[in-house]
TrEMBL record:
SUPFAM superfamilies: alpha/beta-Hydrolases. InterPro entries: AB_hydrolase_fold (IPR029058), Fungal_lipase-type (IPR002921), Sec_MonoDiacylglyc_Lipase (IPR051218). Residues 257-335 form the Fungal lipase-type domain. Its EC number is 3.1.1.-. Residues 1-42 are annotated as: Disordered. It comes from the Bacteria. The lineage of its organism: Bacteria, Bacillati, Actinomycetota, Actinomycetes, Streptosporangiales. One of its GO terms (molecular function) is hydrolase activity. Pfam families: Lipase_3. This is Lipase family protein. Keywords: Hydrolase. Residues 1-23 have a biased composition (Polar residues).
Length: 440
């Protein structure tokens, strides 16, 4: 079976021993979670999470805890800072003081964060340092249970002062079969708390994967709100892999929280935003700190009743911001064959005029840079609709192939898998004057 934990096979013999211990300790919460009789201030664990945690007890969630490399390490030659490095000089202040959303710089930062979440904590921490969060602290929690179609990975990146944090969910990994099965597990499931219509349902695969790491994520956020703890040692930039989550920076309390993700990670980010707004214990602790949810190429997560309930919440209506790149097929999913689904929040669509760009490229070649993917962002009053039936799936595969050949590259596509790739979102959201996310 597929698994994103590359150390799993080498630890099979250890699991056979720890599995016996896990059975003896059934009902305990793995890696920092708490039982229902935990002290005040802890988050109680419901029966479903206990059963899931029993399954994962033998191996337990895999975690990483790293500190970003310094600017001296990132730039061993030349000046520590230049006009283009870091990409944003006062990024923490921008995240703290953003007057409204969407913010173009924040959108670029979070699109970059969501794209590099397909890597590991060390790489993501490095990229966010280059973007402007110097000496950031990055924690990763990952749970994988193949038989339950669970492959859930979340990152928490906290600024040096501790005042800003970004919660980022990894999306569907291209070579992970369990991720794909989770995506198509669209059977409707009712959420475990009241939000508008009691009959409202959500995408079962997304909901299960959010819950799989929810209590570990909430414990990381709880610690991020405390002043206790110190940075983990840098140690040549290498990550620490262990069964606890490490400690957040000590300089200050968390003030601003952003949630983001690409693809299924975007769906998980949006659903976590709903949870923070509508689960009382979370709203009281973190509701005032949550600034916005930015998603990229996000599929739909709930039925029309769920979407309508979210639209009645002012924060979810105005501060859940979805970006759709050109003909990206994923925002149109699940299709109507899976039942009714609908988006909520504000949508921005990047429209690329392929035929016009192709004509410009033909007339100006080789004097000017290619224009093939140049377009503009537009606000959509009506959200992206569901794909009718399943015919769009082979159409999107054909468009992917067509984009690889010059003769067919300019043909418009109704649905495209190629447009779902995270690098297109980064390129479309990169502000004028910014070269790339590396600050070169």
């Amino acid at each position: 079976m597929a698994s994103v934990d590359t150390t799993r096979n080498s630890r099979q013999s250890e699991k056979s021993v720890t599995g016996t211990v896990g059975q003896a300790n059934a009902g305990k919460v793995v890696s920092g979670g708490r039982k229902p009789d935990s002290p005040a201030g802890a988050f109680p664990t419901v029966e479903w999470e206990h059963r899931m945690l029993d399954v994962t007890q033998a191996g337990g969630p895999r975690s990483q805890d790293v500190r970003a490399p310094s600017y001296e390490e990132l730039r061993p030659f030349g000046h520590r800072e230049t006009a283009g490095f870091p990409v944003y000089k006062n990024l923490e202040r921008r995240l703290l003081e953003a007057g409204g959303h969407p913010d173009p710089e924040i959108a670029h930062v979070l699109a970059t964060c969501a794209a590099y979440a397909y890597s590991d904590a060390r790489t993501l921490s490095m990229i966010m340092a280059r973007m402007g969060l110097e000496d950031n602290h990055c924690q990763m929690i990952q749970t994988s249970v193949d038989a339950m179609l669970i492959c859930s990975t979340a990152f928490l990146i906290q600024s040096k002062s501790g005042r800003v944090a970004i919660l980022c969910y990894r999306g569907t990994e291209p070579l992970n079969f369990i991720n794909w099965l989770s995506d198509i597990d669209v059977e409707p499931e009712r959420i475990g708390y009241q939000i508008g219509d009691p009959r409202a349902t959500v995408h079962a695969g997304v909901y299960r994967n959010v819950r799989a790491t929810r209590y570990e994520v909430m414990n990381m956020l709880r610690r991020a709100c405390d002043r206790q703890g110190t940075h983990p040692p840098r140690g040549d930039g290498a990550s620490q892999v262990h069964d606890s989550y490490g400690s957040p920076p000590a300089e200050g309390n968390l003030e601003a929280l952003y949630i983001t993700g690409h693809s299924q990670g975007g769906a998980m980010a949006a659903l976590m935003g709903v949870m923070l707004r509508h689960e009382r214990k979370y709203k009281e602790a973190l509701g005032d700190r949550l600034r916005a949810v930015y998603t990229f190429g996000q599929p739909m997560i709930g039925d029309p009743a769920f979407a309508e309930a979210c639209e009645r919440d002012e924060f979810l209506r105005e501060h859940v911001i979805r970006y759709v790149y050109d003909s990206d097929i994923v925002p149109h999913l699940p299709s109507t064959a899976s039942g009714p689904f609908r988006h909520f929040g504000r949508e921005y669509h990047y429209r690329v005029p392929h035929l016009r760009n192709s004509l410009i490229d033909t007339l100006t070649r080789p004097r000017c840079a290619p224009q093939s993917r140049r377009g503009q962002w537009e606000t959509r009053r009506r959200p992206t609709s569901q794909m009718p039936g399943l015919l769009g799936l082979p159409m999107s595969a054909l468009s992917f192939i067509a984009r690889k050949f010059e003769a067919t590259r300019s043909l418009p596509a109704v649905y495209s898998v190629d447009d779902h790739l995270p690098q297109h979102y980064i390129a479309a959201l990169t502000p004028a004057g910014v070269t790339n996310e590396y600050g070169d």
